[in-house]
Design a protein that fits this description.
By secondary structure, this protein is of the alpha/beta class. It folds into two domains: 60 residues; 275 residues, Alpha/Beta hydrolase fold, catalytic domain (Rossmann fold, 3-Layer(aba) Sandwich). Helix content is 37%, strand content 18%. The protein has eleven helices and ten strands.
């Protein structure tokens, strides 16, 4: 309203005095033209600041730092979720100071913590509003990539719509920030730079949710990206009796011969890897992790033998399905020819990735 009144007054003054314009002295010029324009610019900046402060206020009410929101969106567009430089820079989703503190509620996530070996471990829970009072809901534990955060995985995997429509509880655990927010995927201490008890953390987390949320213990699934994918592999391997299936994106299986998997039942899984992934090579990492094909063979064999079929579902995507002897359990490998180190988000048979993932997992229980 103030801006429009100033504009109208300015226009009237210009029209009324236009015949004097040519003869105006410099002082008259400053009085009749420059000062009104300067007032307009100042009012415009005040209104812009007011709108910006209002938006910042709305974000802060939700527990979201406005600057963090901007950087998160920029990082998501680039797909650079696990770059150490990205996550340790000043302009990352959580600064080092913020990472050293307890996770607080953000967006629709509920912050929780449990103590493991004297260390407070944190995680986020997403409970769909329409199912808040429903018991025996299935659970997906979703692991972030190395040097990442629980919040980043919430936005990256984008499973909220599935949770809302299908009634699924989502959990995003946080790796120990004091050791670089990297999951400890190994049992051996030899050559291991991470000492956090992440296997104990996840086992206790499942127990805690069974007690506090009365989840469906027969439908607990794990998923993850990169280092988080390795953690999902290893939880499915060593807590097999508590996991009904897994989903791994751009990760490798760090199988330890001296700490064999405790497979108690056939385990379905979805495996996505790019052949041009420089971070987690398709051929594996000698001395640490199996090749992608050897990992698939391990799970297919552990499921009691299988038959496989391979089909092309896109110009550069091969889909191999391994069906166990029970005729039910499947392990599916998606090989993205030329694909990099990504959380892949392509549709499968016309179904968006989050809903395809759930359509697969929801068939199984243990």
């Amino acid at each position: 309203m103030i801006l429009s009144q100033v504009v109208e007054g300015f226009q009237s003054k210009v029209i009324t005095n236009s015949y004097l314009f040519i003869n105006l002295s410099m002082v008259d010029f400053m009085k009749h033209l420059f000062l009104p324009v300067l007032c307009l610019i100042l009012l415009w900046n005040l209104l812009a600041c007011s709108n910006s402060n209002s938006e910042s206020g709305r974000l802060e009410e939700k527990g979201i730092d406005p600057q963090s929101k901007i950087i998160l969106e920029e990082s998501k567009e680039k797909g650079d979720w696990e770059s150490k430089e990205n996550w340790e820079s000043k302009e990352n989703w959580e600064s080092k100071d913020a990472q050293s503190k307890s996770i607080t509620d953000t967006a629709d996530l509920i912050a929780n913590s449990i103590v493991i070996d004297g260390v407070t471990r944190t995680y986020f829970v997403y409970i769909p509003d329409a199912f808040a009072d429903v018991e025996k809901l299935p659970l997906i534990i979703d692991f972030h990539g190395g040097s990442g955060t629980a919040e980043s995985q919430y936005y990256l995997s984008n499973m909220q719509s599935v949770a809302d429509s299908e009634g699924v509880i989502l959990v995003y655990p946080q790796a120990e920030v004091q050791t670089g927010s990297v999951w400890n995927t190994l049992h051996s201490s030899e050559g291991n730079k991470v000492s956090a008890n992440d296997f104990g953390f996840i086992a206790e987390l499942i127990t805690e949710l069974s007690l506090t949320r009365d989840i469906d213990d027969s439908r607990v699934f794990v998923s993850g990206y990169s280092n988080g994918a390795a953690m999902a592999y290893m939880i499915a391997c060593h807590l097999n009796d508590r996991v009904a299936g897994f989903v791994v994106m751009s990760g490798l299986f760090p199988l330890e011969s001296e700490f064999p998997c405790l497979i108690t039942s056939p385990t379905p899984g979805l495996i996505f890897n790019g052949t041009a992934d420089a971070e987690r090579p398709y051929s594996g990492m000698p001395g640490y992790a199996l090749s992608v094909e050897d990992a698939v063979e391990f799970w297919a064999s552990s499921n009691g033998g299988s038959t496989s079929t391979t089909s092309q579902i896109g110009e550069n995507i091969e889909r191999s399905i391994y069906i166990a002897n029970d005729g039910i359990t499947e392990v599916q490998l998606f090989t993205i020819l030329g694909g990099g180190h990504d959380w892949f988000d392509f549709p499968v048979n016309g179904v968006e990735m989050p809903f395809f993932i759930w359509s697969f997992l929801s068939q199984f229980s243990n």
